[in-house]
Amino acid sequence: MTSPTRAELREHLVRTAIAGDVATSRENNLDHYRSLALRDPHYMFGLSFEGEWSFRQILELMSEKAGVVADPAHREGQDVIDPDRTIDAAEEMADRIAKVLRRGAPRVAVATGHPTGLLTVHLALARFAAANGAVLVTPAEGWTYMGGGIGRRRRIRYLDGVAMVEDRGSFVHTHDPHPMRAMLAEERPDFVIADHGWAGAAGEAGVETVGFADSNDPALFVGEAEGKIAVTVPLDDNVPPRLYAPLTAYLLDRAARSL
To answer: Where does the source fall among the domains of life (predicted)?
Structure first.
């Protein structure tokens, strides 16, 4: 589709609740910030942190980076993502992608833990990278591990160059960093486009990484603050896939113009 203007994209993000008044509740956001402050591995996405990152510090960071309500006394009800922060970060992500592609034949890994939402964005970015000289790497395909807390083996499977976790024939949502660690053990890419534990594990390993994260997933934003993640784009990460089309078009147009 034709790329929207910034104003058109901003209106779309708010209208579709990709940003603005998002579906993620204030209670859920604060619960996840507390869990990360307690270093719950499920919320750390494979990252380690140098700073203290208390609950209050995480809330302050999320207010700065994603635009959630800064007041700690706001404990329930609606929370928000600032659409201008979403667009600013998307532009920075696009510029980073273009910079990597200008190097000539970079090895790029693309992965998502959100096959019901953000997969469509990752597929488009993978196609764009490949069309502009990148080598899409697909290491560790078929690698399995016990994941999801349900006593079944999950495996890495690729769809058009995008890595996901598969469970009995279905792509599944995951925060796990283990699959990306397996990929890195087999082949280390130059650049990673991802989310959740895929992005966290890559950034922790020192690979240049850009990613997407919801307002209830603060780990990548903390990783960005500590220099392990290059760019984190704040957005609701699980709206109907078709609704991401204008954002995807804006990203690709910005990257193409930056090549």
So the answer is: Bacteria
Structural domain total, the chain: 1
- Residue 69 near residue 26 (C-beta atoms within 8 A): yes
Report the alpha-carbon distance of residue 240 to residue 235 in Å, rounded: 13
Per-residue pLDDT tens digits for 177-220: 999 999 999 999 999 999 999 999 999 999 999 999 999 999 99
For the purposes of burial, counting CB atoms within 10 Å of the CB of 98, is it exposed (0-12), middle (13-18) or buried (19 or more)? middle
Nearest by Cα to 228 from 252, 196, 206: 206
Pairing state of beta strands 191-195 and 107-111? Answer: parallel
Under 8 Å between Cβ of 41 and 200: no
pLDDT, tens digit, for every residue of 171-184?
999 999 999 999 99
CA end-to-end span of the chain, whole Å?
19
Residues 86/18, Cβ–Cβ less than 8 Å: yes
The answer to whether 241 and 117 have CB atoms below 8 angstroms apart is yes
Range of the domain at 149: 1-259
Closest Cα to residue 32, out of 219, 189, 233, 247? Answer: 219
Residues ≥6 apart with Cβ < 8 Å to 257 = none
